[in-house]
Specification:
The chain has one helix spanning 119-122; strands spanning 5-10, 13-21, 24-32, 39-43, 48-53, 58-65, 68-76, 81-86, 92-97, 101-106, 111-116, 133-135, 140-146, 149-154, 159-164, 171-175, 187-192, 196-201, 206-212. By secondary structure, the protein is mostly beta strands. It starts with a strand and ends in a 12-residue tail after the last strand.
């Protein structure tokens, strides 16, 4: 039987709801913290949860045991955390910083690699407020915020391998569709701080289309 759960962050609290019947949800766990958390991620494969505190540069790892959430440990970074990305079928997750580094952790919370931009791309970078990450597959990761560039990383060699120009603002969001069992999508959608949305064909390494919205502020993207 599939168990449906909802996790939420409210100021300094983690709340978890479980569906007990068709019309009723109940809180089965509540955690009071000292830090104000920014984001929460669930690692379904290993039954773990990641929380990040951007202001304090902390990454915390939690595990589930029956109806309890147990604290496993935490890691500190010397840079401001900008984003975190993972895929349900992977054994690791990635943390991006405003220093344009990507830290790779396994599901036990152990750091096993740090990736930095290549010297060729560093001259194109400017000071950024964003560094979104998105996994394309188990080996390829994309980032934005790099002076209007969409950047491709190869985890196997630990560095950037390609970048695409075209955005007029810093890339703030990167999304991709959920892959079907037999069909793997080759597309990404990005948005920037100037209200531009672009669709990219990663296999063909080219832009598909671009849309400019009247408002510069795009709060979120969703691919249904």
């Amino acid at each position: 039987k599939k168990v449906i759960e909802i996790f939420g962050l409210f100021n300094e609290n983690i709340l978890t709801w479980k569906k007990s019947n068709r019309n009723y949800w109940k809180i089965f766990a509540k955690i009071k913290l000292k830090d104000a958390l920014e984001k929460i991620f669930i690692l379904e494969k290993s039954n773990l949860m990641i929380t990040t505190s951007f202001f304090h540069n902390k990454i915390k790892l939690w595990s589930f045991l029956n109806e309890k959430i147990l604290f496993c440990g935490q890691s500190f970074l010397n840079e401001k955390i900008a984003s975190i990305s993972t895929k349900s079928n992977q054994e690791f997750f990635a943390v991006g910083t405003l220093g344009r580094k990507i830290y790779l952790y396994n599901h036990d919370g152990l750091l096993f690699n740090v990736m930095r931009h290549s010297k060729f791309l560093k001259k194109n970078l400017c000071r950024t407020k964003f560094f979104p990450l998105r996994f394309f597959d188990e080996n390829i990761l994309f980032s934005g915020g790099n002076g209007q560039q969409l950047t491709k990383w190869d985890i196997r060699i630990g560095k950037t391998v390609k970048h695409w120009n075209g955005h007029i603002g810093e890339i703030e969001h990167i999304i991709s569709p959920k892959n079907n069992q037999n069909i793997k999508s080759s597309y990404l959608i990005t948005s920037d701080t100037k209200g531009v949305i672009k669709k990219w064909d990663i296999r063909k390494e080219q832009e598909v289309f671009s849309i400019k919205f009247p408002s510069n502020q795009i709060l979120s993207l969703l691919w249904n």
